[in-house]
Amino acid sequence: MSAQLRDTAGELAEILWREHTVYRERSGGVVIRGEHVRRWISLAPAGGRDEVLVRAGRILDGGTTAPARSEAVVPLSAGTGVLAATCRRLLAEAAADAAPVVPGRAAPGRSNQSGKAARPKGSGKHTSFGSWVILACVVGVIALYVYSTAMHG
Question: pTM of the predicted model, to two decimals?
Answer without folding.
Answer: 0.58
